[in-house]
Amino acid sequence: MIVFFMLALVLSGATAFPVExxxxxxxxxxxxxxxxxxxxxxxxxxxLKETNGKYPMLAYGYDWLAFAHIxxxxxxIGPLKDPVKNVWVIDWAMLACIAVFPLAFIAGPVRSIxxxxxxxxxxxGVIGLIPLFICKSWIKQLETCKQ
Length: 147
Fold this sequence. Notes:
Blueprint: H1 2-14, H2 19-27, H3 35-54, H4 60-75, H5 77-81, H6 87-110, H7 115-146
């Protein structure tokens, strides 16, 4: 479960590198995009394309976002090696998943993010909590067996 969580972090972070290309591909396949999201995603793509064309250095922020996901994933090596000793990493990650909600619901409207996308962002917190709760439960069982 920890390896799954690590891979999910790395994969979700890696999608930040080619975000303009990914949006172009997605918008080239309109059947994959819900009607209510098409206009907003087109606006996002146009903004990225224009910004990347004029100010490519700003895309460096996406590179750092991807890098942060990879570095955070490496943090879970500790619980893989010694889950009982490093259960704090799981606790920290659960708090991080919960912290998605205030960020999304505060910063989202400030940045003109549509409500449907705020809910998508929140789903990462919810989905992340599921394997973390399972890990936490297994670590508690492991701790009980070691005593």
